[in-house]
What does this fold into?
Amino acid sequence: MAYVDAFLAAVPKDSREAYTEFSRLSHEAFRDHGALNIVECWADDVPDGKLTSMPMAVKAGPDEIVALSWIVWPDKATRDEGFRRIMDDPRMSPERNPMPFDGQRMIFGGFTPILGTP
It folds into this structure.
């Protein structure tokens, strides 16, 4: 059964090009290590909330925007092995591919799909 990793981050608004390049290099590495599909999204209609919201979840400042991404894997075992290998992949080193956002405020997690459409 497929497995999905989801990520939510606050990215400086003026870093869209840097974020796109970071993502391009990351996508190559993840695909080489077993990912089936990877999607990057730049917020377009993400409202601020009173109690909770995506911007609040990542503590986005006024100069930041929310980015959402997900990775689809064939199964959890492939994901676990892929992430293990990603840690040693030079394309993911901070020197070669620095994160253009504060990774400490990134929210992420793995999910088992329960329903989906092609």
